[in-house]
Queue: 4 jobs
Job 1
Amino acid sequence: MNIALIAHDRKKDEMVNFIIAYESAFTGHKLYATGTTGQRIMDSTSLVIHRFMSGPLGGDQQIGALVAQNEMDLIIFLRDPLMAQPHEPDITALLRLCDVMGIPLATNVATAELLVRALQRGDFAWRELVHKYKPGEA
């Protein structure tokens, strides 16, 4: 599965700790992240992550492009709801794309844990069907 990991600045420690706790669940999947988040995770784990630009410099949009092409299966985006973000339109666009494409998206650790536990159980097999029959194709 293709999994994206994004965290706002005040959520990066929380993301790193979450990934450390569930590192074995992410092993064997193709991982993507925005710049600093990806580097911090790689510095703290043995996971290999394809890093995009930082969110404000277009990383959210790069991940959004994969969502639009139905090439992303799961996103964990630990957002800071109490801090205004300079790239808020990009964030909103990414969230909207996830809704349009039916991509599971966690924006807090509680939901992320539910999704990762489902991943561990193999509950995302339905995504393989989506890859075979992309939305909008006959």
Note: The beta strands are 2-7, 30-33, 49-51, 74-78, 105-106.
Job 2
Amino acid sequence: MKKLSILFLSALFLYGCNTNEQATESEEGVTTDTEMATADETMTTDDAMTAGSKDIVALASETPSLSTLVQALQAADLEGALQGAGPYTVFAPTNEAFAALPAGTLENLLKPENKQQLVDILTYHVVEGNVKSTDLSNGMSAKTLNGADLKVMLNGSSVKINDATVTMPDVAASNGVVHVIDKVMLPPSM
């Protein structure tokens, strides 16, 4: 019993040291997992691990940094399609990617009279099938739902789809996989 108490107190002490160490690291500019979950709008590793039970649209809807994508999907009436059985691979631009478009572009695309143009852009970000990062090879191309091809470029640990960089690969959804990217890709016809 005495050994068990010492073991328990030792574990508490080590846990306390670990917590203090995390706080110290945080003060030095290293972000802890807890701070990432509250400070970072993109999906955390914890989110990505539990994401597999949600469809692509539910996953994007629950990710604050993908709210502009969700708004665009709604304006284009594509939510239902991406909630279907799939599987689909979505290259999901962040809010920052949409904000980087020339001034007024997003607002113009969201207008009802430009719905087809928005559909063309969004379907250029979707590939049929469940394509994970391990399935990609340098120079390969993938046909999008838009009908145009995307080009894959690998450089060490960096993955580019056309000129967009994958910032978070392989987020599992119940009907496919999402790769978060840092740029809105425009189809060749635009």
Note: Confidence is low (pLDDT under 50) at residues 1-51.
Job 3
Amino acid sequence: MKKHQTSAPLPLTDTLSPGLPLDQIGRTLASFYDNLVTEGVPEHLAALVRRVRQTEDDASARHEPPVVTLEAEPPRLALVVEDDPEIRALAETLLEETELNVVGCDSAEAALSVLQARGGDVALVFADVRLAGQMDGLQLARAVATLWPRARLVITSGHGLPRPDLPAEAVFIAKPWRPFDVLVEAERAAAESAPPVI
């Protein structure tokens, strides 16, 4: 009867592919580690996987890329242009309930100064027809429609104008306006995306 011969176990290096670094084997095992654990992994392989993972975690902690913080977008504005201080204050208080920052002006000229400085941030221009200064709200509306077409235009008047001669994009709300109507227009303005920076 022929005896079955048992051979001595080969050294570890004989069973590995020539030139394959041990840490690469460990990384490969680490990628399958979770599945292998459920099937039962010899402790010496599990220890190797843990050591490779710890080394990789330490290396990534030392070589973390810098955290890039995006600059916050400037807040979008609602411009209230009204020469009556009480009505202007009422509109400003109302619009402060929206996500827009509010800037009040008593004249078209003051509003144009704000628009020249921050026109890309202005989402809403809410203006009366009659204003202090040389320009009226209709002239302001035409300037805004031409130069800052992304701003939502809402023109108001209490002087019996059914719909004054306004740019087609403008919305007209007769005085006394309802807060709800103003808020609806403000929400529409806030929902529109800011123009791209060119």
Note: Residues 10-15 have pLDDT under 50 and may be disordered.
Job 4
Amino acid sequence: MAGLTESQVASFRENGYLVVPDYLSPAEIESLLAETDTLLNDFSLDSHPLTQFTTGDDDQAEHVGDDYFLNSGDKIRFFFEPDAFTSEPDPLTGRPALIKPKNLAVNKIGHSLHTLSPPFKAISLNEQNAAVAKSLGFMDPRVLQSMVICKQPSIGGAVPSHRDSEFLYTNPPSAVGWWYALQDSGPGNATLGMWKGSHKGRKGGHIARRFVRRADGKGTEFIENDGPSVPKGMEEEKVEEPSDEDLEILTVKAGSLVLIHGNVLHKSEKNTSQKSRYAYTFHVIEGAEGWEYDERNWLQPPEGGFSRLNQS
């Protein structure tokens, strides 16, 4: 199975991201959308803790960190948009009340679709992705944190600018995101915004903070990173921060794959349109000797470790 071309690898190394059109077939897209709809419609609210997803980057909301979230690494669980609820609880149940049907109120589904959902597993743990990982230099690629991000119409929340290795830190950093557009994504529909070249040390591309479990085991927080801040072989010197001139708002057709360097700065805005923006994403980290997955990361490996992306 062929991986990336030399020019694609060069573009990824230069910009920190790469759009690969038509990576999924129309049949695969249809299968994944059908599976997503089934999952959104069939889960029960009866015992759901109504966990809302937020990293608290706006300094107003608390970081997500209940047991439902922290223990989701080997499960399929559902996390709601903060704007999906009324301001006052339901007087009969005492619980927050949804303002939309549950299938239109979910922020994301995670975090082990790549092991527990056959359609998502088929397009995650396959030879094609193994070949791509090999092109990027991975020796023992491991898959983790798979999720469907829904970006529901009018309430799909913004994702503030961040670097993925802040959340899935290895020593040294190694994460790369696989982001599949399941629906067309473009300006006005909460698409990805990428700062070109911002993964490089001289462009401020350091992992300066990390999203971790609190030391007392109660919730999550951001802490200062005191370990290596860039991948092996990258420049450590910090000279300048990325500017808005480097920001590219992507237009991504359904079926395309976006590869995202773990140190590249990126974001997405709130979805104010009337169209959803479904995307499926997972991350790959280096599992070979010489890289260590940190024990304080919010997501911890399941029994048996993270899924190996076998290379033929």
Note: Helices lie at 6-15, 26-42, 67-70, 113-116, 118-122, 127-135.
